[in-house]
Write a structure and sequence with these properties.
The complex is a heterodimer of chains A (722) and B (84). Chain A has 23 helices and 26 strands. With 722 residues, chain A is α+β, with helices and mostly antiparallel strands. The chains are: A alpha+beta (722), B mainly alpha (84). Chain A: This is Acetoacetate decarboxylase.
């Protein structure tokens, strides 16, 4: 139910006919697929009926003919398909699995994939921004293969590729479709039911990937987790609410949301009874958190595998906190924290020990879960444009409401763009301004918890079962540096990036004229020319979020004692010993946080711009319409290049800032003949004028250094007295 | 007194006859599936947002449904011959 008492209605006033048609067709096609699957199942049952087997032994002439006709109907790839045999065990099961392994997909699965293609298209009508997502590009490349069999094989390959899974983890809107496709193309036909459920709008009967039963899943929810009591900082203590209230709990979660902690509080209610409130944050898209189970990759893992260390860690934290048996608890969770708390509420043993009176999930995919205690009051708050809450199988293309009696607020918020609309601060603001009645209703329901907070304890959750993301390259000591966009941990770590560095020989005097007006900063010379580099990056996952980056830089000599051929000698030195580097003339980035970090930490002149980058394949393209810049091309075969580490220089006031960049990935050197840069603006700023002055506004690069997938960390800038 | 007894149908044979009927019904259902897929392909013909490959895929799959229907009918006849 909505806050106003009406059933939630997903489509907004701007819904399009195309989307409706696609959804309707997808529904029709999936019904057909289900019909075909049922026919396959019934025919399999006839073929493997013990009575038929026995009678065929007695009268083999007609019996074997009948069995052959049934087998032919089930396995003909022009008909029901090679793996249409769906028998839970025995030779039938082996035959069905063999059909899938041999790539003879069942007709039912192929029809369902067609339906899912239509559903993906319907979601893209509403969320065209997802077409730019790297995971979506890879998915679309697989789904739109010309032949059905190729599609199924491409999808199977995609789901097995660890690198692709990281990219796919950003595709929350299509999670139900992905899970369905994944189960359908899996080589075990017994997983099909799991795939069919989201496709047909049913509740998930089992774990989406393994196809295990829900009870087995609960039994396997023993992932190794850990919880350690930690103190809040003085600044955090000031922001933690002293009184229990819904928005106060959410603000507490926002305070914690940076580094994977949960909060447990004692609240003395109006009746004088002390109750307990558990507050669990979620995940931040594109931002991994080291060694803690709350990052987006972890969420994907928790959603699609049976391993759930987050819930286990919360249990350990509560055990440490010392809540007496029979005490009343309210669980408040955001995003993945909501899922973890709902998993806790499903735990019958936990519910026997404690009384969970309330569970409030904000922006969480908890639709397919029910608490073990039917008295638990459950509330769900979702922004219709936030696609994370649909990742439990009730997708944007789905049309059913599994829990009509649950308090649900599914509102249309002003933030449409994902992931902005998934941010907790957006939800808090919307609860104040867009749906204040929902806040009032939930506060009213939480009345027993609305009193003074008498104890607060934070716990840091650890995920010992898996190495930290990026281990060991990105496992580094970090320091928090204050910026105007909030504290930023340095080194900044990039877990999944692509890059192409376009290297242009340019006029040395032109390059010199763009450098700061100091005598000691000179461009490195290669003969009579200097070298300018246009670096294009696609950062899919970093500690400052996902963004695209375009940087124009010039190679410069040692700032104190420039020598000829320094640049060649430096190539043989470790990056931390190098004296030459690249002075960043201008930088364009796709997020405000990245702009602030570049300006304030690295001293690089940065602007925020919208940019699309696709640098993962040999054919790459980067478009920044606001800069009037487009780069596209095709990289031919290249040769391995030594390393991608580099030194970047920027300026802050009268000082130079030196930043070490260390990369881990396979860098290749290509000729620049297949790459073309186009400048489609007459403006001089922010980057176009510099490109023109260097004479590279329409030139082809001499060579290109590319790295389709790598990890990188950038240190805090060291201020040099120069 | 003369008593007449009709030849009783064994439960196994009755079950097999049921299966024949079900196979025939499933063959009809597959024909219906083919018609629905073709109708969907036709509905999508004017939709620019639909993936290009979806129409030919639906037509291919409709043809497979028709083939499956024929093979199910053939299987039903073979099973009937065995049951008799």
């Amino acid at each position: 139910m909505r806050a106003d008492g009406r059933a939630p209605i997903r489509p907004g006033p701007d819904e399009q006919d195309a989307r409706e048609l696609l959804r309707r067709c997808a529904r029709d096609v999936v019904e057909v697929a289900e019909g075909i699957r049922e026919v396959s199942a019934r025919t399999s049952a006839v073929l493997f009926a013990p009575a038929l087997t026995a009678s065929a032994r007695r009268r083999p002439r007609t019996g074997l003919a009948a069995q052959w006709a049934l087998l032919r109907a089930l396995t003909n790839k022009q008909g029901l398909g090679g793996s249409a045999i769906t028998v839970p065990k025995g030779i039938g099961h082996v035959l069905g699995a063999a059909g899938e392994v041999l790539g003879r997909e069942s007709l039912a699965a192929l029809v369902a994939v067609t339906s899912l293609r239509l559903r993906i298209a319907a979601v893209l009508v509403d969320h065209p921004e997802f077409e730019r997502d790297p995971g979506m590009r890879r998915l679309l490349a697989a789904v739109t293969a010309d032949r059905d069999l190729e599609t199924v094989r491409a999808l199977r390959g995609l789901f097995k590729d660890q690198g692709a899974q990281r990219a796919l983890s950003g595709l929350a809107p299509l999670m139900p479709e992905l899970l369905a496709i994944r189960a359908l193309v899996d080589e075990d036909p017994m997983n099909d039911e799991t795939g069919w459920a989201p496709a047909a709008g049913r509740e998930l009967p089992a774990d989406p990937v393994q196809g295990t039963s829900a009870s087995r899943l609960a039994g396997m929810d023993q992932g190794e987790g850990a919880a350690e009591a930690v103190d809040l900082t003085e600044q955090e203590k000031q922001t933690i609410a002293a009184e229990g209230s819904f928005l106060g709990f959410l603000r507490n979660i926002e305070t914690l949301s940076a580094d994977g902690r949960i909060l447990v509080q004692n609240v003395r209610g109006p009746d004088g009874v002390v109750r307990y409130v558990v507050q669990a944050p979620g995940m931040a898209p594109g931002r991994p958190r080291n060694d803690c189970p709350q990052d987006f990759v972890g969420a994907w893992r928790n959603l699609v595998t049976a391993d759930s260390p987050y819930t286990r860690s919360i249990l350990l934290a509560l055990a440490d906190y010392g809540i007496p048996r029979g005490a009343e608890l309210a669980l408040i969770g955001y995003s993945e924290g909501g899922i973890a708390l709902m998993n806790l509420a499903q735990d019958e043993e936990f519910c026997r020990a404690y009384r969970i009176t309330h569970l409030v999930a904000v922006g969480s995919p908890v639709d397919n879960k029910l608490p073990a205690d039917p008295r638990t009051w459950v509330a769900g708050i979702t922004n219709q444009h936030d696609m994370v809450p649909v990742s439990d199988g009730r997708g944007a293309g789905s049309h059913f409401d599994p829990h009509p009696n649950r308090y649900e607020v599914d509102y249309t918020g002003p933030s449409h763009e994902f992931p902005l609309c998934h941010m907790l601060r957006e939800y808090i603001e919307h609860l104040r301004t867009v749906v204040p009645e929902a806040r009032k209703d939930i506060d009213e329901a939480l009345t027993p918890y609305r009193g003074p907070v008498v104890r607060t304890q934070a716990y840091r959750l650890k995920d010992r079962a898996h190495p930290p993301e990026g281990y060991p390259f990105l496992t580094l000591p970090t320091t928090s540096v204050p910026t105007t966009a909030g504290p930023v941990d340095v080194p900044v770590r990039y877990y999944d990036s692509s890059a192409a560095h376009l290297c242009f020989p340019v006029d040395a005097e032109a390059a010199r004229s763009l450098l700061p007006g100091v005598t000691w900063m000179m461009p490195s010379r290669l003969g009579r020319r200097a070298l300018a580099v246009l670096s294009l990056y696609e950062h899919r996952c970093s500690t400052i979020g996902p963004y695209a980056e375009i940087a124009l830089s010039v190679l410069v000599d040692d700032l104190w004692r420039p020598r000829p051929y320094d640049i060649a000698a430096d190539l043989l030195r470790r990056v931390d010993l190098r004296r030459t580097g690249r002075y960043v003339l201008s930088l364009a980035v796709g997020s405000e946080e990245a702009r602030v970090v570049a300006e304030e930490i690295w001293g690089q002149p940065a602007v925020r711009t919208s940019a699309e980058a696709d640098l993962m394949g040999p054919g790459f393209a980067v478009r920044a319409p606001e800069l009037g810049l487009a780069v596209e091309g095709h990289l031919g075969p290249g040769i391995r290049f030594r390393e991608a580490d580099r030194v970047l220089y920027g300026r802050r006031g009268e000082s130079t800032v030196r930043t070490l960049v260390r990369a881990h990935g396979k860098l290749r050197l290509h000729t620049g003949s297949g790459v073309r840069l186009r400048l489609e603006t007459a403006a001089a700023e922010p980057m176009a004028g510099q490109l023109r002055r260097l004479g590279i506004d329409s030139a082809r690069p001499l060579f290109v250094l590319s790295c389709p997938q790598f990890m990188v960390h950038r240190s805090a800038g060291a201020v040099l007295p120069r | 007194m003369v008593t007449e007894s009709t030849r009783a149908i064994s439960p196994a044979r009755a079950s097999s006859l049921d299966q024949v009927v079900r196979l025939r019904a499933d063959a009809d259902l597959m024909d219906g599936c083919a018609r629905r897929l073709l109708a969907t392909a036709s509905a999508l013909s004017g939709c620019a947002a639909a993936p290009e490959s979806s129409r030919p895929a639906l037509e291919r799959q409709a043809a497979a449904c028709t083939t499956a229907a024929e093979q199910l009918r053939a299987a039903a006849e073979a099973l009937l011959a065995h049951v008799r």
